[in-house]
Amino acid sequence: MVNLEYFSFIIDYLPIFFEGAIVTINVAVCSLVFAVSLGILGALAKLSKSRILNYIAQIYTTVIRGIPDLVLMLLIYFGGQKLVNLMTTAMDIGYVDINPFIAGFLTIGFIFGAYMAETFRGAFLAVDKGQLEAGFAYGMSKAQVFFKIMFPQMARHALPGLGNNWLVLVKSTALVSIIGLDDMVRKANIAGGSTQKPFAFYFLVAIVFLVLTSISIFILGKLERKYSIGVRKV
Amino acid sequence: MDWSIIIDNLASYRSGFFITLQLVSISLFIGLLMAIPLAVIRTSKNHFVTAPVRAFVYFFRGTPLLVQLYLIYHGLPIALKFILNFYGFDESQNLNEALKDTIALKYMWEFFKEAYFCALVAFTLNTCAYTTEIIRGAIEGTPFGEIEAAVSCGMSKLKMMRRIILPSAFRRALPSYGNEVIFMLHGSAIASIITIEDLTGVARIINSKYASPYEAFIAAGILYLCLTFILVGGFKLLEKKWFAHLRRD
Amino acid sequence: MKKLILLAMVLLMVVGLVACGDSKPKAEKWATVRIGTEGAYPPFNYTTKDGKLAGFDVDIAEALCKEMGAKMVLVAQDWDGIIPALNAKKYDAIIASMSITPERQKKIAFSGKYYQTPARFIVKKGAMASFSDEAMEGKTVGVQRATIHDKYLTDNYKSVKIKRYGTLDEVYLDLVAGRLDMLLADSVVTDDAFLKKHAKGKDFQFIGPLLTDVKWFGVGAGIGIRKEDKDLVEKFNKAILAIRANGTYKKIQDKYFDFDVYGK
What is the pLDDT of residue C227? Predict the structure, then answer.
């Protein structure tokens, strides 16, 4: 016998829970945009002829990928405000509040930028060199070659890696709950604490994540098919 | 920065370090052992056979490890209570008392009571799901010539799996499995959420005690970094050994 | 290309920093006072179902700010980071049932106390015949991380297993589930939120003496303020005296408790 009364405590919390779900999605999407930009820059820096840029990019990707996301997040969350504060005091501009949402997505973006850099580096290398040379031979500028030839071809090679990173990133957003951002997991935390029935709420969270990843996998499959048009299958 | 905080608490960091190592290595080991048969089942053509494995992999790869940990930590007592209902469990009792008469369940609860054990279960199931997928991919990538050769030698299916397909699949799975090991090491940091004082947990305690985030988390970060480097180096060595026949001189 | 990348990197960093926060101009001093509280410590401070902060601490904060003629802004902050965030100027004062202890006074300044209640162990009814150090041996005890209770246990009970949690709600969960044998926390808080209001609270009871040792438990809960803001400490001290005198304090107290929480 299912007693519906029993579930009424979940319904009470559903509105704030879905608010949290929206935050989760927003954080994930913003992080992705930031991570992709950082990743492309990192990949270009790794492939550039400048030694200094090589070193910076190498240190960035090695260190970030060698330390757990949670430790980095705690470091940036607790240490970041201290740093910002030192700067504002030095510049005498009063208090600057770190918005937890922005701090959250910058942190995740910063971490996944390192993984993206590796993905994009591989993708850049996969573009046929002859094509770039052909572009230059036509008198295109460096920027033109990058945007017109390199980028569109690179996108196809980067897509599978990008998709995998996205799936990992979505799940990593759960960690921002620990650094105080009001995402879905934190809402479940709070609701579970005050009702003393945490299992039901975490179960709900798990289902929403399953839906999110399933939709992502579906869309990624479509995108991959679209970008592989014209590519011969072996 | 005041690094004397770290020097003073070196013992805590050391114990945290070993708890992390223990958690990760035990769960990786059991996870791998479980993943091999699951991967073999997963490659079967019978949908009814593969369905449970697919569901398991789908759930554990589709949700965050953090949520899985919460579900297991808070869900195991509920599951035990559910089982106990058949034994005429009295709602007002807590598990410790209710379990007095049911020896088997009592021992189960002795384990589940420990946050450490819950983390072990969560990590093992999680890495098992990912490893199953990795090995499945490697099995499906077996060159057809190898299988043909095995068949023409008159090998039975089981023998072929044992002697030809699995060894060659392990070799192909090695690079991805190396990544999985590092992901698991990093993922284990969330054990600190359920009161386990692993490396991250120790850093969090030091941070809240001294309000010195840089020292506390950078020290932990450096230790994780060292572990990661050792693992990456180890896998490179293994790859060199296993792929010796592929090396181009 | 090289320059382009460098330029883009610098730009990205600047954008990141600027986006990080909206700088607020320094207004007239203390026209607005931002109060940090935890929101997971009923009845002193808690979060309501629609996400608002409420409780004794919040009401006191409101009364004090009104007394000082300041606008109050509430900021929720997890207990773990509540002192660092004050020093980082996320808010100007902590009103979150924080006990005044010598350890904390190294990092921040305190107003005088605004209430004082003792700490006490809680145990399952019938699980411990009488309280003694021997009976405590080998027990698993839950506390909230980085509290006076955590420090007291860590310093005085070497033979118990201490489990440290982020919030008290999590401690209750594991106590009820049977993962913990005992908990140590403020007696007023656990009496109200756990023994009286929790569904399983009636199965548990207080045990042992009321713990008030100044060395660990301090002289009561005070308002935490940055050390450099001495003027704000003064303002709060005056305001506490004022609301004690004009009956506002008693009105708030009676809303939550049927006894005197201010202590001696």
Answer: 94
